[in-house]
Design a protein that fits this description.
heterodimer; A: 110 residues; three-stranded antiparallel sheet; 44% strand; B: seven-stranded mixed sheet; four-stranded antiparallel sheet; globular
């Protein structure tokens, strides 16, 4: 299985909104509502931001939202803040109790 | 405090073996499915293996199947990953991670350890 496809980088100014896409196939993203998103700051462990496509864990800002259309999932961050600058990874259930991650997207806050 | 702490990483020669451990605290370890996820230097995340709360169900990524073995000891609140026949491409930071739910898995990980580095090199 190949990794899910994410843009290598995205950028935005403070206060703006950005969207990161995550494209898979009908065998993973398209078949299950089990996409999660992780934020990772340099040299830190990943942090769960979204699960089951659009649900936020307790403590995660409502500026983060998730959605899905067909084989593509998306993470939207509104009201960009400097601390949002990080790498973001999507992850999808791929059947047979296996998971596949995206290649990661580096978010730069200008 | 809910916490996962990995240990056991280090430098090993190709073909060698290494055993990673993950100590859990602050939650009912025996109720959660657990996982290993790795990240090669400068690269993205890769799911490695999962084990159900009672060890009844175990799954591996194709890249490690037949070489790695996941296990857990609920009495000791610990998770392990036995890695054999190691290859250069296994070089990575290895994280243990907890499933986000205690019931039906949502295949998301809400608690992560700090990671332990494994380097496979001659």
């Amino acid at each position: 299985q190949s990794a899910l496809t994410q843009p290598a980088s995205v950028s935005g100014s403070p206060g703006q909104s950005i969207t990161i896409s995550c494209t898979g196939t009908s065998s993973d993203v398209g078949s299950y509502n089990l996409v999660s998103w992780y934020q990772q700051h340099p040299n830190k462990a990943p942090k769960l931001m979204i699960y089951e496509g659009s649900k936020r864990p307790s403590g995660v800002s409502n500026r983060f939202s998730g959605s899905k259309s067909g084989n593509t999932a998306s993470l939207t961050i509104s009201g960009l803040q400097a601390e949002d600058e990080a790498d973001y990874y999507c992850c999808s259930y791929a059947g047979s109790s296996t998971l596949i991650f995206g290649g990661g997207t580096k978010l730069t806050v200008l | 405090e809910v916490q996962l702490v990995e240990s056991g990483g280090g430098l090993v020669k190709p073909g060698g073996s290494l055993r990673l451990s993950c100590a859990a605290s602050g939650f009912t370890f025996s109720s959660y499915n657990m996982n290993w996820v790795r990240q090669a230097p400068g690269k993205g995340l890769e799911w490695v293996s999962s084990i159900s709360s009672s060890s009844s169900f175990i799954y591996y990524a194709d890249s490690v199947k037949g070489r790695f073995t996941i296990s857990r000891d609920n009495a000791k609140n610990s998770l392990c990953l036995q890695m054999n026949s190691l290859r250069a491409e296994d070089t990575a930071v290895y994280y243990c991670a907890r499933d986000a739910t205690v019931t039906t898995s949502v295949y998301a990980f809400d608690i992560w350890g700090q990671g332990t580095m494994v380097t496979v090199s001659s």
